[in-house]
Amino acid sequence: MSLTPVKIPILVKKMFPNYIWDIPSETNTIYITFDDGPTPGVTDLVLDILKTYNAKATFFSVGENAIKHPELTKRILEEGHVLGNHTYNHINGWKTKTRDYLGNIDEASKVINSNLFRPPYGQLTPKQGKKLIENGYQIIMWNVISLDWDKTVSKETCLSNVISKTTKGSIVVFHDSVKASKNMLFALPKVLEHFSNLGYYFKAIKIKRIAV
Description:
Layout: H1 10-15, E1 29-35, H2 43-52, E2 58-61, H3 63-68, H4 70-78, E3 82-85, H5 98-109, E4 116-117, H6 126-134, E5 138-139, E6 144-145, H7 155-165, E7 171-175, H8 181-197, E8 201-202
Parallel strand pairs: 1-2, 1-7, 1-8, 2-3, 4-5, 6-7
Helix pairs in contact: 2-8, 7-8
């Protein structure tokens, strides 16, 4: 059983108020996001599903994956979705010196032109976060995570995690990776159908770079 909470506790959000955990909205809008791609045989299926429901999403891509699969990176952008930086090779901020961490993100930025950043594992130090914000990045976290990558979580539970916890303004995390694909590809279309039937819209995250 995963120890990761499906819904981020309010206390955690208050501890890191400069990070974006959700996007308050008066309209029925949900922000679906994908981490770790692009991945052939997975990301392309995700894009097909999103197109079926006229949904836009944000893809926090790993730099080396974006370089390996430029056709998927191009398709993400051409179909109206947004790219975010997820480091060059999925490193853990807690285990990496700040200088090296920032350098890794800079390397990814050569192929991922975005001011949106999500730390792999959701883990970065306060110093790393402060430096990234000073450099103009918006740190995008989440308030609902599907746990799609967790092998102890069934595809039905993955679906329930998202449907039961998501509200308007939620930032929801899926993964367009091989590891998560079974659960994610089961849950994603059902999530989109469920909330579409309730009158929700699915938008990509677009936040302007803040001058500091």
